[in-house]
Amino acid sequence: MHIGIDASNIREGGGVTNLVEVLRAGEPGRQGISRVTVWSSVNTLKQIEDRPWLYKIHEPMLDRPLPFRLCWQRFALRKLARRNGCDLLFCPGGSYAGSFRPFVAMSQNMLPFEWSEAQRFGKCFILLKLALLRKSQTATFRAADGMIFLSNYAANTIAAKVMLNKPSTIIPHGINEAFFAAPRRQRKILSCSHSEPFRVLYVSTIDVYKHQWHVAEAAALLRNQGFSLQLDMVGPAYPPAMERLREALCRLDPDETFIRCAGKVPHKKLPAVYRQADLFVYASSCENLPNILIEAMASSLPIACSNRGPMPEVLRDAGLYFDPESPEQIAGAVGELMTDHGKRSECATRAYEYAKQYSWERCARDTFAFIADVASRQNEGVERSAALSR
């Protein structure tokens, strides 16, 4: 069996990580797949390790802007896939406008399907882009012969809105082994002071649905209650969201006494960042699968977490929950964990154990198994139709 991968719109972020790790950890031969061909841009292909069964094909049009990539996908890919003898096309980017069949699609972005969250951006280009993505992904998911979702929450939400009725599966991403750190002894709150504060960490892009300003408000509330804590926010920023956060910080902590923004940190350095923290807070209100939350779980951090989206599905009973738009609730969850040493230890241990299920080896195995199953069923259907027509 020969599988083709359309990576024409896999260029950065979690999409690239998933593609690179699945192809690194995968053993498709175990699922009856003898060859995998991936088409992508030169930058994405450089990040994919060589394998005997893997053929990496660079298409110059895929290094160009979106209109060129869409044109290639719509008009060139079908011929290339047929010429290479592909039995099925895998489209992890979520949007596919070509005519090759059969194909399996993957959903990795919730924003196009949670319009109340998308509207937080206001009337701007991003909102238009998300509207177009919703239209293209809806058409793709309806046409696909199989669907891969990252969480039950995403599958249920999107299937209801798109009216899907086809084979689907839940295959969460994996987590790099570098993030795993065995549970450690929790600090006693009485040992903390303004010179040696309790360190609260929030790693995430500063964005309109991540609510960093509400977390900052919560930190200020806790400081006013006498807690010795420092809030570290790590991640790149969407400029309008960063402006809103700056306005909050100028009001709450103008001298950067207890709230610090570190900006973007290379992913390979994040494990060390997690290990320096005493507690993790995650305040996103829109996720498909919260990889950052799982990284914090693997790092054995006690976690105060948003009660929206798939977060309760992932963290389960290993943390305390809050409304991400309520500074008072955020402060309540963080404060309870800070003062309850035993609860922190219990949550950290549970989170660490739950994180172990998120491995790239499992993700790769399940991905290729599902793709092979869809391809086999489609081929059986074609053969059955041909036999009946004789």
3D architecture notes:
- This protein has a seven-stranded parallel β-sheet with strand order 3-2-1-4-5-6-7. The protein has a six-stranded parallel β-sheet with strand order 10-9-8-11-12-13, sandwiched between helices.
- The longest helix has 30 residues, at 360-389.
- The model has no long low-confidence stretch (mean pLDDT 94).
- The protein folds into two domains: 2-174 and 359-389, Glycogen Phosphorylase B (Rossmann fold); 177-355, Glycogen Phosphorylase B (Rossmann fold).
- The protein is built from 15 helices and 13 strands.
- The chain is 44% helix and 15% strand.
- It has 390 residues and is of the alpha/beta class.
Number of strands: 13
Q: How many DSSP H or I helices?
A: 15
SSE-based structural type: alpha/beta
Shape from CA axes? Answer: elongated
Strand and helix layout:
Elements: E1 2-6, H1 13-25, E2 35-40, H2 42-46, E3 54-58, H3 66-75, H4 77-83, E4 88-91, E5 103-106, H5 115-118, H6 125-143, E6 146-149, H7 152-162, E7 168-170, E8 198-203, H8 212-224, E9 229-234, H9 239-252, E10 259-263, H10 270-275, E11 279-282, H11 291-298, E12 303-306, H12 311-315, E13 319-322, H13 327-339, H14 341-355, H15 360-389
Parallel strand pairs: 1-2, 1-4, 2-3, 4-5, 5-6, 6-7, 8-9, 8-11, 9-10, 11-12, 12-13
Q: In a few lines, what is going on in this structure?
A:
The protein is an alpha/beta fold and 390 residues long. It has helices spanning 13-25, 42-46, 66-75, 77-83, 115-118, 125-143, 152-162, 212-224, 239-252, 270-275, 291-298, 311-315, 327-339, 341-355, 360-389; strands at 2-6, 35-40, 54-58, 88-91, 103-106, 146-149, 168-170, 198-203, 229-234, 259-263, 279-282, 303-306, 319-322.
